[in-house]
Design brief:
Elements (H helix, E strand, L loop, with lengths): L2 H9 L8 H10 L5 H23 L1 H12 L8 H47 L4 H5 L3 H43 L1 H48 L1 H6 L3 H54 L4 H43 L10 E7 L5 E4 L6 E6 L5 E5 L4 E8 L8 E8 L4 E6 L5 H8 L7 E6 L2 E2 L5 H6 L1 E4 L8 E2 H6 L7 H10 L3 H5 L8 E2 L8 H15 L3 E5 L7 H15 L3 E5 L11 E6 L2 E6 L1 H7 L2 H6 L7
Parallel strand pairs: 7-14, 7-15, 10-13, 13-14
Antiparallel strand pairs: 1-2, 1-3, 3-4, 5-6, 5-8, 8-9, 11-12, 15-16
Helix pairs in contact: 2-11, 3-5, 3-7, 4-11, 5-7, 5-11, 7-8, 7-11, 8-10, 8-11, 10-11, 15-17
């Protein structure tokens, strides 16, 4: 993959967190509302660890005061011994209960924190410019909501609390061991240093593979999503074998990364387990020697040996959680990077409002829909002026390129008077769709100007500008919902009657009535249960219900057969009546009745005029229309 999308994916491949401290601090900023929960978790972890340490320490009095004195004794009094066992059981039970409660609390904290992060991430995504989505693949963006958030959830709900619990346990156990036997503690520390050395070596190797594994999972998921959506194309072109080869290649990368990650990770546990057994044996031997030569009591030795198990297990757990935390922090950084992307800049101050005329003929702003729209401008002196929205669009010497040093439009100048139909004709890449992108301010114009009713469009708020425009795109997108809801997407306050009227205008009502539940038929998977033509009719109805002053049709009838196109021509004429319309079309029969036709080539207008004028000129349009030259 080349270009900006390929670069973006490459930059995210196998990354480690750049600034772990800053990322952790930012994650905790989302947990402010759970301070009480975290305080309770902190206390419960202390109780759990203290219970484990205290119960183990009870082995010393059990051996010294009860078990050893009972040896050889006839009918010993076991009441105190039983009380001691009951106390130990209660301590263990309290520790287990504390562990259960803090795990439940951390699940609440983790899910609540991720809820906030996902909400903010999605909200911010809606504010990002189109340029961001043009330079990032869908799979890459989806990985923020899936792989990265899953890794973050595991870290918050398990890894962090496990590491904290392990640290508390190790600290408490170390203190208890120092009290019981400083000499044996030295033996434990020496073995600990060996274990830490092995953890560092194996953990470092597995960490690299875990990062690669996370990136590979995202690539595999993205490819599967792409192939699932494009199965018809795959089968039409008999591309099954090639698709499988490409998938096998990605799957092989995932396999190698997962194999490396899990090989070293799985090696760590048995190595640490065997070292802990070796550690236990060495400690037992040295302890036995101390009991014989230095008088170390058996109760202290029994407690100490149990502590050695409690000492090595948390260290092993911390080593296992370390890679998970690295992956989660890298994922969190990717999430925060998306949140930190600059939102779509909007310096506009002019707004779109409903108006009606008072008895003096002046515009008065109202809240309800009147059929009259106006641009509301607040002047420097605070005076409010209203300019009726008519749909007068003018481009003056517009120069634009999606990338630096690569111009797409060169000095485009044109005008569309209110109610006129302007058509753009030209080969793919000539700049037709780019003009409509600029009208919507998906991209801003670096050179030249675009005026809307005499107002520079960069002075109009983007949301208000786009409310005054409706677009019917070649690639129709339908949302999961009923037919009624999909049409109403054009204007959310439209009544059912207005939705049905818009469908009739677009000639969609007849096929909708034949659907299983009519307008209440549920559409899923981008409306795959409808034909492409039916989907495009719904898109036209969606634009019709918005009743905009300006309409943009980007190959709006490209997927509609000639018969259906003829049927909706009158409806389209009604839809376009009184509106400024921009039409992009490869099918030249659809632009014959345009007021002006602009023929574009390499980002410039090479011919302009109505159909008869251009035919008379016998230029490029004439060649296209007569079939001497085909659009590509």
């Amino acid at each position: 993959m080349s270009g900006p999308r390929g670069k973006a994916m490459h930059l995210n491949r196998g990354r480690k967190p750049k600034d772990a401290g800053k990322t952790i601090k930012r994650i905790f900023s989302y947990m402010k509302g759970y301070r009480g929960h975290l305080a309770a978790v902190f206390l419960l972890v202390l109780i759990s660890s203290a219970g484990q340490i205290a119960a183990t320490y009870f082995l010393k009095p059990l051996f010294n005061d009860f078990i050893l004195p009972f040896v050889g004794m006839q009918n010993p009094d076991l009441s105190a011994f039983i009380r001691m066992l009951v106390i130990m059981a209660l301590i263990y039970a309290s520790g287990a209960l504390a562990t259960f409660i803090y795990n439940r609390l951390m699940i609440t904290v983790a899910t609540g924190t991720l809820y906030k992060i996902r909400t903010e991430l999605f909200s911010h995504m809606q504010k990002l410019p189109i340029r961001y989505f043009d330079t990032h693949t869908h799979g890459e963006l989806m990985s923020r909501y899936t792989n990265d958030t899953d890794a973050l959830r595991n870290m918050l709900s398990q890894s962090l609390v496990n590491i904290f619990s392990s640290l508390v346990t190790v600290t408490g156990v170390f203190i208890a061991m120092c009290i019981l036997s400083p000499v044996l503690t030295v033996v434990v520390v020496l073995m600990l240093l060996l274990m830490l050395f092995i953890i560092k070596k194996l953990g470092g190797k597995s960490g690299k593979f875990f990062m690669q594994q996370q990136a590979s999972v995202g690539k595999v998921n993205g490819y599967i999503e792409e192939m699932t959506e494009g199965q018809k194309v795959v089968k039409v072109f008999c591309h099954e074998d090639q698709s499988k080869k490409e998938f096998d290649k990605l799957n092989e990368e995932l396999f190698e990364a997962a194999k490396g990650a899990n090989t070293f990770a799985s090696m760590l546990r048995p190595i640490m387990g065997n070292l802990s057994y070796m550690h236990y044996s060495i400690t037992a031997i040295v302890g036995a020697l101390l009991a014989i030569t230095r008088g170390l009591d058996l109760g202290s030795l029994a407690s100490f040996l149990q502590y050695t198990r409690s000492f090595s297990q948390p260290i092993t757990m911390m080593s296992e959680q370390f890679n998970a935390i690295l992956m989660a922090l890298a994922g969190a950084e990717r999430i925060f990077e998306m949140m930190d992307e600059k939102p779509e800049h909007d310096e506009g101050t002019v707004t779109l409002v409903y108006v009606q005329k008072d008895k003096y003929g002046d515009f008065v702003e109202v809240e309800h829909r009147t059929g009259l729209w106006a641009w509301k401008q607040i002047n420097e002196n605070g005076k409010v002026t209203y300019t009726q929205v008519k749909g007068d669009i003018r481009l003056n010497d517009v120069v634009f390129g999606y990338e630096e040093n690569k111009t797409v439009l060169s000095g485009i100048s044109l005008y569309a008077k209110p109610g006129q139909k302007i058509a753009f004709v030209g080969s793919t890449g000539a700049g037709k769709t780019t003009i409509t992108n600029l009208l919507n301010r998906f991209y801003d114009v670096p050179d030249g100007s675009i005026l809307y009713d005499g107002i520079p469009i960069n002075r109009i708020k983007k949301a208000d500008l786009r409310r005054s425009l409706s677009m019917v795109l070649q690639d129709t997108h339908l949302f999961t919902g009923t037919v009624m809801e999909n049409i109403r997407y054009g204007r959310l306050d439209a009544s059912d009657e207005e939705v049905i009227a818009a469908a009739k205008l677009a000639n969609a009502d007849s096929f909708i009535q034949h659907l299983p539940q009519g307008y209440d038929t549920l559409l899923t998977s981008d409306g795959t249960n409808l034909s492409q033509g039916q989907r495009q009719l719904l898109a036209i109805a969606r634009a019709a219900v918005a009743e905009p002053p300006v309409l943009i049709l980007d190959e709006a009838t490209s997927s509609i057969d000639t018969r259906t196109e003829a049927l909706i021509e009158k409806g389209m004429d009604k839809l376009m009546e009184g509106r400024t319309v921009f039409v992009i079309a490869h099918r030249l029969s659809t632009v014959r009745n345009s007021n002006a036709i602009m023929v574009l080539e390499n980002g410039t207008i090479i011919e302009r005029g109505d159909h008869d004028d251009l035919i008379e000129q016998a230029g490029k349009y004439y060649q296209l229309y007569t079939g001497m030259f085909e659009l590509s």
